[in-house]
């Protein structure tokens, strides 16, 4: 593996899952990070991703520098521009310099939710990849969140009781306009992994980009989707079609105990943070089939597997 | 010890003092933090507490992640709430997730100084304790600052020349409205320690909560309190009775050289930062009986004793 | 060496260069930082300086705490002041406390560009030096940037092909008002090093302070200065005479390929970040004589040489 941006960079997802499991069993068992440096560069703030990645790096023996650029670091991305305005440094220099200070460069960027073409170009991440001379790891980009998805594969692998579980990715209400990254990646990884049957349930108008969720796996009938499901993965996302649109008309999309009875005693998953009694009821979240804390824990081991492979 | 929130959590204060002294003599003498993680979570900013706690953890061999949430991390504390507003994550998840990333969770919160009942419930700290699955250390809460107070016990233990020194906690002028935490804890710890005679001197209207400073140890006569004192501990605090009130009529409460002549050649103590020539005169602060830098130094060893006990 | 604030603190620049080269060849070859702490205190934000200094310290085996005080830490610098206003802590306590938490204290401050006398007093840096009880390293002050300059000596030493190269420090256009620190220090260090012939080229009205660039090495004719040059070091700075003044009339001062043909196939240097096609053309910056990334890389080794000498 030479970078970690999408499921395409993971030639063998089961090998990554197994590596993550090995680190979970023995966190300090391998030290490929000795005398190496990991830089985490955040263009927007982060709790789980930052902590789990720092912990993962340190458990591998590496040093970590986390740099919060959310306050503004005016990076220029256009080639040939006359930088006489608000941008102070070109990504060529930014990526080139950071590459010299580290062995793996982890970057988090985010979408505008205004300009779909620009967001789906994923320019920040791709520019860093282009000009970095060390492996780049996405800590979430404008369109994907691969470390979350690898974590989700691991969590499902640990809890499945049938060889091929039915997994439902369901849209859920949320008062804010959220990116599509987690959902895109979840669909991408479930399909790339190939060991689950994935259904995506969302209201009309909220289909994910077809490249991530082709029409044949999308339904607008949440209750039908839940029937016989082994895993319910809830997440809000804003619209891809009418890009960035959201709704305050939540309808009947919140996940509650009654709906969970439609499933095959499914586990409940969410990447956190989660709005209680908006996305999901207290009863489901606090019930014994909720895996949200296990997911957060698994972030560390997934990150460790990825970093170990790149260091 | 399973948590460190108040003097009640310290079954043997002298044992903690002795542990701190041992670390001061040999900072790297014990390494119970090896392959362990300490998380410092700050809901308001900090200099001394942050640095001394980080240093203490690292000297024990632990890794540290310091997370500054002062910019806002909308945590919901109410049970059963419909999180359709400004809070993005419930403390159940926040504490549950952080617990999985560390072995000791250190939290700093702060009072509103508006709603006494709410502040004295110490909801932030208590909620983290309730939902964390690892030991919690208070880096100052809405009502207490136990690491400062253990430090103060250590500093007094190092400098006392009589078995039972007279210690005066005195209110001092300050242009801002300050919490009662340091003063509450100082009184609590001096009394729990039981090896000093404590007097609290403050203007009328500025009595601390009776639970921390019962009436029989409170005086409004600062000069009388100073008579024969071995240690003068100065601190401003806002009112408990008319909750959060302060005054710009400082009267004669500043500590200066003349007042210090009333004492038994007392040491001067303050937790810093200190407003010169408002709280205390330059002459006292720069004099050879001032212990303020020794106190700041002792923060490291007190934190190391506490973390060592919990790791 | 007992501090690192200017070229005056470096008794033997070649020894520092050689130490930096040794660390570049073997980053973990010496571990004088074991069980020691370096504190980096930033009064304004930093990318390269922060990362290279952290990396340098860690490669020496030291722990590092980086404290960002750019959000405001109201430090009082005046002696005898009645601190009844906006300043919360006197530099005596600030420096005294930090000294107890570390073995080397690194400080970055910055100029106002409003009051020349105040800026050139370098009060923040000098006050920390005065009250610190550990060695102080300047991570850039109001007037100097010595770690950058030592880096520049190293980079020139690595690339010179003649014993005594001709080095041109040239003013270049920039839309913002910038400090004189990098330029002052570059001139100071080149002269103190004594192994290059230095010319400073700048527009009329933009002479550096005579103490850094005496008249006999200053020219207003950039093209004449470039003739036969071995190294072109570009940097914008605001005026020293009409203090802080800048210009948007950039004239013909941008460095481009045509101008570089006037030189002896000179290397191009800049401390970064750099405004492309304002300070320098893409062609020069991306050309094979550009050393800007090597300079950024050398920051680590220069810092490591300095810290190793002080730890």
TrEMBL record, chains A, B, C:
UniProt entry keywords in alphabetical sequence: Amino-acid biosynthesis, Arginine biosynthesis, Transferase
UniProt keyword Amino-acid biosynthesis, yes or no: yes
Residues where carbamoyl phosphate binds: 46-49, 73, 108, 145-148, 271-272, 299
One Gene Ontology MF term: transferase activity
Residues where N(2)-succinyl-L-ornithine binds: 140, 174, 235, 275
EC number of this enzyme: 2.1.3.11
Pfam families assigned: OTCace, OTCace_N
Protein family membership: Belongs to the aspartate/ornithine carbamoyltransferase superfamily. SOTCase family.
Subunit (UniProt): Homotrimer.
HAMAP family per UniProt: SOTCase
Protein name: N-succinylornithine carbamoyltransferase
Record organism: Neolewinella antarctica
């Amino acid at each position: 593996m030479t970078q970690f941006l999408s499921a395409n960079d993971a030639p063998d997802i089961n090998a990554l899952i197994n590596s993550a499991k090995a680190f979970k069993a023995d966190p300090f068992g391998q030290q490929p990070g000795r005398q190496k440096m990991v830089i985490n560069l955040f263009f927007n703030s982060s709790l789980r991703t930052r902590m789990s990645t720092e912990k993962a790096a340190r458990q591998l023996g590496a040093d970590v520098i986390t740099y919060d650029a959310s306050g503004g670091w005016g990076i220029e991305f256009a080639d040939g521009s006359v930088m006489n305005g608000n941008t102070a440094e070109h990504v060529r220099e930014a990526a080139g310099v950071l590459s010299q200070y580290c062995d793996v460069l982890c970057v988090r960027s985010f979408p505008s939710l205004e300009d779909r073409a620009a967001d789906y170009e994923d320019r920040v991440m791709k520019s860093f990849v282009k000009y970095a001379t060390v492996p780049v790891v996405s800590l979430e980009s404008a369109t994907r969140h691969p470390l979350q998805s690898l974590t989700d594969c691991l969590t499902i692998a640990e809890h499945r009781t049938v060889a091929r579980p039915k997994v439902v990715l369901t849209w859920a209400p949320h008062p804010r306009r959220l990116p599509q990254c987690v959902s895109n990646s979840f669909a991408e990884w479930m399909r790339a992994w190939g060991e689950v049957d994935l259904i995506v349930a969302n209201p009309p108008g909220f289909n994910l980009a077809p490249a991530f969720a082709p029409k044949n796996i999308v339904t607008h009938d949440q209750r039908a989707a839940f029937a016989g499901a082994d895993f319910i993965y809830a997440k809000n996302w804003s619209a891809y079609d009418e890009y960035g649109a959201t709704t305050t008309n939540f309808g009947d999309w919140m996940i509650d105990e009654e709906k969970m009875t439609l499933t095959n005693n499914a586990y409940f998953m969410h990447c956190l943070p989660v709005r209680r009694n908006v996305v999901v009821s207290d009863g489901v979240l606090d019930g014994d089939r909720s895996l949200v804390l296990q997911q957060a824990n698994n972030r560390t081991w997934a990150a460790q597997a990825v970093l170990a492979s790149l260091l």
